[in-house]
Amino acid sequence: MGSFSDRQRRRPTAAVVVTKEQIGQVRDCFDAMRPLRREFAEEFYRRFFELAPYARNMFAQDMEQQKLKLMDTIAALVGALDNPEMFRSIIEQIGHQHAQFGVTSSQLAAFGDALLWSLDRHFGASFTPERRQAWAALYAAVQYDMVQAMAAEPR
Ligand code: HEM
Hints:
The protein has 155 residues and is mainly α. The protein has a single domain, classed as Globins (Globin-like), CATH 1.10.490.10. Helices cover 71% and strands 0% of the residues. It is built from 7 helices and no strands. It is globular and about 40 Å long. The relative contact order is 0.17. It binds protoporphyrin IX containing FE. Protoporphyrin IX containing FE binds next to helix 4, helix 5, helix 6 and helix 7.
């Protein structure tokens, strides 16, 4: 039992596995977009609000800080991909906040769709099926842990 922390024992491990190769692909992409991350976030939120229009009113009118916060969080998650404890503790914190915001699972799905759409648009032909698969695996892991964290939250 010694190798399992209390947290791991309480919860099933993520059903989604991000392989070593996928971690490398996600990191390469993220590094490449870093200089244009504000523009990326802008495009991302535009798409997200098209897919989930009712989510718009949950955010402040001015999204500048929000864009940076989102990109910082993605950076932290990408950095923690090979550290499951750290990955989960980031998600737990976000899950806690987002349960308070009243985020729904369909909004979470739209968030992932908007992310892949924006990556596709940002990278064009160089967003290969393998890279797409790698990001889809990352978001599936985020979504899985987020749903768990939100469900654990008292309402
Ligand atoms: C798993 C994907 C998501 C990540 C990584 C994420 C990340 C973040 C971060 C980092 C913040 C800033 C928190 C702070 O101010 O300290 C935030 C705020 C927020 N997020 Fe998310 N988010 C996600 C999904 C969603 C979804 C699906 C919704 C649905 C509407 C949502 C709604 C909000 C709202 C309403 C705020 C507060 C905005 C404000 O204070 O004006 N998020 N999110």
